[in-house]
Amino acid sequence: MKAIIIGCGIAGPVLALALHKAGIDSEIFEAQKSLDDDAGLFHYLSPNGMNVYNVLGIYDKIFNLGHICNKTILNDENGNSFASFDEDNSMNEFGANSIMIKRGVLTKALREEIIDKRIELHFNKKLKDIEDLGNKVIAYFEDDTSAEGDFLIGCDGIHSHTRKILMPDAPKPSYTKLVMAGGYARIPSKNHRNSMIYANYCKRAYLAYFILPSGEVWWWNAQSYPEEPSKADLQKITDKQWQKHMIELYNEDSSIIKEIVQSDENDFMKYPISDMPPLDTWYKGNVCLIGDAVHATSPTNGQGAAMASEDGVTLAKCLRDMESSQKAFEKFQELRKERVDKIVKFGRRNGDGYFLTHPVKKWFRNTMIRIMTSPIIFYRMKKDFFGYDVKWDEKIG
Ligand SMILES: Cc1cc2nc3c(=O)[nH]c(=O)nc-3n(C[C@H](O)[C@H](O)[C@H](O)COP(=O)(O)OP(=O)(O)OC[C@H]3O[C@@H](n4cnc5c(N)ncnc54)[C@H](O)[C@@H]3O)c2cc1C
User: Fold this and answer.
1) Of 24, 208, 261, 359, which is the most buried if we count CB atoms within 10 A?
2) How far is the CA of 31 from the centre of ligand 1 (A)?
């Protein structure tokens, strides 16, 4: 069997590596001319995502490229902590730790593994069309070339062209009314601890930060933005203009938040946030969708990259164990859909809580968060989210 993989973000290379482990060939086709390893922000990768790298034998490599994350502290609009959750026992509980890692560092590390395993990776191959002939699939690219395989997997992200070809009537990504921005800052404050996320429900928006031992601050925020801007619209706003806007947005918040948005080191990256409404079917004939292409979630739950990684190994396992690709796709959807639908819903709900202005609603939100992060409830939630085990060595019956 040979797989045609469209997209080399996270789902694509993880799938190719897992297929390689299962003894199945693949070729990856990526639209971009080359991948910019400095582009994008950073990902929080929780133990469930990291455990995928355990399956692929690259846990240590990825772990050493990131920064361990042991705890999250949630602060209210006055800068007072109202809840927290620990992750310092994750290795014992789930066999992996959580890390923060730059997106470019993660994707580069995955690509190095692809090269190491001699899996073919082609750049500048933007998918234009797909022909499913029953016994094989042909992918056509915008440069007038084509490629053949036994099946094709769309790993081409939230605006997936594979999805548009496969299911032209499927629901489109849905805008969450949030714009997220982030960057790298240096601040004068010293009274903070490393390896922890400080999540701040500020007066008018949300802002979280993570401080590295070097003193560099990785931060991201989310704010209400009712009318959906395009990425291009956001890019037209200069760093100076955006910084002015951020300084005004947080001018009633704690001094550390002000220091972060005022930092001259910032190179503001901004993203309109959408998620995917649940799709009834994830495959058709010899073509299947995985990762953001089928279940993009708002980054407010820090699970998108982990879900894309879980998908990659789960689908490879299904293809290894089932008698046909169609049966494998069916099994894959059966194994994954309930989990990812729940996580997408959770992300949407988190985001809605970021821009409350009414004091009673804020009080209710904080109380709910306090209850959810209480040890017993949070342990159950952690087990559900972080304890996902792909059970690679067990054959699907
Ligand atoms: C601001 C922000 C913050 C985030 N933070 C986190 C976080 O903290 N933790 C986390 O787990 N997740 C986070 N995510 C989500 C995470 O980035 C995605 O869920 C993850 O990248 C999905 O992986 P993917 O491979 O499915 O898609 P992508 O990573 O989007 O990769 C898709 C690839 O397909 C290529 N492509 C697109 N169209 C075509 C085409 N026609 N032909 C060929 N190739 C094509 C693209 O160039 C790209 O390389 C965040 C997302 C955003 C926007």
Assistant:
1) 261
2) 13
Confirm or reject: Cβ of 242 under 6 Å from ligand 1: no
Query: Which atom of ligand 1 is the closest one to the Cα of 128?
Result: 41
Assess whether the C-beta atom of 347 lies below 6 angstroms from ligand 1: no
Ligand 1 centroid vs 302 CA: distance in angstroms?
12
pLDDT for residue 36: 86
- Enumerate helices (H) and strands (E) in the chain, giving the number of each: 14, 19
Q: For residue range 32-77, list pLDDT tens digits in order.
A: 998 888 888 999 999 999 999 999 999 999 999 999 999 999 999 9
**Is 168 exposed, middle or buried, given 0-12, 13-18 or 19+ CB atoms closer than 10 A?**
exposed
Q: How far apart are the first and last CA of the chain?
A: 20
Going from the N-terminus, what domains does the chain have, and what CATH number goes with each? 2-173+276-386 (3.50.50.60), 174-274 (3.30.9.30)
Residue 356 has pLDDT above 90, yes or no: no
Q: Which of 43, 234, 276 to mutate to test the pocket of ligand 1 (most atoms within 8 A of CB)?
A: 43
Spacing of C-alpha 275 from chain mean position:
11
**Tens-place pLDDT, residues 176-222:** 999 999 999 999 887 778 889 999 999 999 999 999 988 899 999 99
SS3 171: coil
Q: Which amino acid is at 345?
A: K
301-312: b (≥16 Cβ within 10 Å) or e: bbbbbbbbbbbb
Task: Tell me the angle at which helices 375-386 and 47-55 cross, rounded to the nearest 10 degrees.
Answer: 30
* Ligand 1 lined by 7 (C-beta under 6 Å): yes
Question: In the 8-state DSSP scheme, what is residue 277?
Answer: P
Ligand 1 pocket test target in 8, 123, 156 with most atoms within 8 Å of CB: 156
- Residue 280 or residue 265, greater confidence: 280
pLDDT-derived band at 117 (thresholds 50, 70, 90) equals very high
Q: What is the mean pLDDT of residues 264-279?
A: 92
- Contact between 366 and 82 under an 8 Å Cβ cutoff? The reply is yes
Neighbour count for residue 223 (Cβ, 10 Å): 21
Give the pairing of strands 196-201 and 71-75: parallel
Rounded average pLDDT over 234-238: 94
